[in-house]
């Protein structure tokens, strides 16, 4: 397990494959985002007791940071036993001005993500926003959604 805390002060773009160790925690500055680009992928697999956390540096108001945008069609994209919270401060690049969410998948790139055993909470918009992309069919039942302003999942 990692257990390390990472402070993200600018947008973070993944252009290659990244595997995140269980227990890692990413704290994002206001209005910053994580972008998994078309040549990259993310495998963030925690455990029931050592989740991988993506959240805002401040956790007092829904929508502190922008959230995570998956542009990658790589089938390796997976988030299991993660917590994603306090996203949706502003729209993620390429998603339109009205889209606020913790996690977004982009249809222009045929993005893929498997999201399981995770808690998605305190978004200023959707928990997960899927714009014509590919996500596991059981996304709403395989995860826990808490206090996302607009709703759980938009497909």
Instruction: Round the mean pLDDT to the nearest integer and report it.
Output: 94
The count of strands amounts to 17
Q: Secondary-structure element sequence?
A: EEEEEEEEEEEEEEEEE
The radius of gyration computed from the alpha-carbon positions, rounded to a whole number of angstroms, is 13 Å
- Strand-residue proportion: 35-45%
Category from helices, strands and their pairing: mainly beta
What fraction, in percent, of the residue positions are helical?
Answer: under 10%
Spans of at least 5 consecutive residues whose pLDDT stays below 50 are none
- From the spread of the alpha carbons, the general shape counts as globular
- Mind summarizing the main beta sheet? 6 strands, parallel
The end-to-end span amounts to: 34 Å
Strand order of the largest sheet: 1-4-7-10-13-16
The helix tally amounts to: 0
Oligomeric status of the shown chains?
Answer: single chain
Structure description:
The protein has 155 residues and is mainly β. 0% of the residues lie in helices and 43% in strands. It has strands spanning 5-8, 12-14, 17-20, 25-28, 33-36, 41-45, 52-56, 67-70, 78-80, 82-85, 101-105, 112-116, 119-121, 126-130, 134-135, 144-146, 151-154. A six-stranded parallel beta sheet has the order 1-4-7-10-13-16, with no helix packed on it. Strands 2-5-8-11-14-17 form a six-stranded parallel beta sheet, with no helix packed on it.
């Amino acid at each position: 397990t990692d257990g390390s805390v990472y402070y993200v002060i600018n947008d973070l773009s993944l252009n290659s494959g990244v595997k995140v160790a269980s227990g890692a925690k990413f704290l994002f500055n206001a209005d910053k985002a994580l972008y998994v680009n078309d040549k990259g992928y993310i495998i963030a697999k925690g455990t029931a007791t050592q989740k991988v956390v993506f959240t805002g540096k401040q956790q007092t108001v829904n929508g502190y940071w922008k959230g995570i945008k998956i542009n990658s069609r790589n089938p390796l994209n997976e988030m299991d036993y993660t917590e994603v919270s306090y996203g949706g401060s502003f729209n993620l690049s390429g998603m339109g001005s009205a889209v606020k969410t913790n996690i977004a998948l982009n249809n222009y790139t045929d993005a893929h993500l498997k999201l399981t055993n995770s808690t998605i909470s305190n978004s200023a918009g959707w928990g997960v926003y899927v714009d014509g992309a590919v996500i596991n069919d059981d996304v709403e039942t395989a995860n826990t959604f808490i206090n996302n302003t607009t709703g759980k999942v938009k497909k």
